[in-house]
Amino acid sequence: MSGHDAKEELIRVGYDASNRERAGSFIQSDGRVDFTGSFQEGVEILAIEEALKKYPEVSERYYGKAFAKLGREFDPATEGGYFIRVRAGVKTAFPVQACLWLKSKNFRQKVHNVIVVEEGAEAYLLTGCTSAKAAHEGYHLGLSEFFVHKNAFLNFTMIHSWKKDVDVEPRSVAIVEEGGSFLSNYICLQPVRTITMYPTCLLEGAGGRARFNSIILSYPGSLQDIGSRVILAAKGTSAEIIARTVSKGGTIISRGHLKGMSPGIKAHLECRGLMLTEEGRIHAIPELETLYEDVEMSHEAAIGRIRKDDIEYLASRGIPEDEAQSLIIRGFMDVKILGLPPLLEQEIARAASASLSDTF
User: Is residue 230 part of a domain?
Assistant: First the structure.
């Protein structure tokens, strides 16, 4: 891969190789960690193997513990991944960034990541996962565990940019304590063979909040089974799941599950899909579950096509039909739903535009 091609791949997933305006960086290609670096006091970034050796509490309190809390098994045969910790009270001036990169043909990348935001801390984490042109028939398994402690805040944004013969399985669990907030944003705008993911957040402390946002574009031959699940296990917790899906011929299964396990909770689920061809499929599967009366839980789902009236309106303003369709789709997939600060929103918008420019 040329240097230009590599740079383009990183841009697509929001990774800034210059490390400007970043609180820290991590990059791994195949099974090798290429770089780790922290650029702000109170922000730690290590390869997960190094963190397990350096800090006993990583294995005692964190590694595998989020999966165990929900009774889930995980593949122990991982190689690499990152440990990121933001110390108590620290607020990251810039986002922390991480990149997991498939470079070799037939490589099976399996990583385990642990992210800890201590009490009262605030952090933005931008993760990009991508594959090089040579990485045919690749496979990526990403295990991630998030621990958001009391009154802490984490905004986690993950951008995927794979290839049409790559299979992907992200598996993640977030544990949120009292007064904590976890926001998870997912963007996939490039071809992929299969993605199967169903991240779960457990709101175990009173007043905890979670929000999952996803923006997905599916191509012919793709199967993307993507959902989010929030367990509201304490009084005063709240959650929201929002999905924007567009099919250009691929199959999207958009799942959402909100489980109320305490009275006095609020939750909403919203899934909107846009069909561009007759060959594509979008399945919206919203699920609400509770045993209590004193809850506010709702959902809405809608799937449709671009309206002819909208195309004609833009055409009357001198915009060609193809460009009009592109404008409508870009508006539908607006990154403003992600709840990012202006600086990061602009960077994500540029990354999304770089991906969509090849499509529309």
Answer: yes
Q: Which residues pair with 248 in a beta bridge?
A: none
Domain boundaries, position 28: 3-306+334-355
Q: Hey, what are 272's tokens?
A: 């909107």
DSSP one-letter code for 91: B
pLDDT top residue among 303 and 350: 303
User: Does residue 324 fall inside a structural domain?
Assistant: no
Confidence of residue 1 (pLDDT cuts 50, 70, 90): very low
Distances in Å between the Cα of 322 and the Cα atoms of 278, 312, 328, 359 are 18, 12, 10, 11
- Find out whether 255 and 225 touch, Cβ atoms under 8 Å: yes
Tell me the residue ranges of DSSP E strands in the chain: 24-29, 32-38, 43-47, 82-86, 96-102, 108-117, 122-131, 139-148, 153-161, 167-176, 181-188, 194-197, 200-203, 209-218, 223-232, 238-247, 251-260, 265-275, 281-290, 295-305
**304, 280 contact by CB (below 8 A):** no
Task: Tell me the C-alpha distance between 357 and 348, whole Å.
Answer: 14
From CA 329, how far away is CA 321, in angstroms rounded?
A: 12
CA angle 331, 244, 358 (to 5 degrees): 60
The single-letter code of the amino acid at 144 is: S
d(CA 334, CA 341): 14
In a domain, 311, yes or no: no
Statement: the pTM of the whole predicted model exceeds 0.85: yes
For residue 55, the one-letter residue type is: Y
Quote the CA–CA distance of 245 and 216 in Å, as a whole number: 5
Question: Quick one: residue 143, left, alpha or beta (phi over 0 = left, psi -120 to 50 = alpha)?
Answer: beta
Is there a domain that residue 316 lies in? Answer: no
Residue 18 has pLDDT above 90, yes or no: no
What is the predicted pLDDT for the residue at 328? 78
Helices marked H in the chain: 3-12, 48-54, 56-57, 65-69, 308-316, 321-332, 342-356
Pick from 195, 151, 144, 150: which is nearest to 173 by CA?
Answer: 144
| Number of independent structural domains in the chain | 1
SS3 95: coil
CA-based nearest residue to 154, from 163, 145, 165 = 145
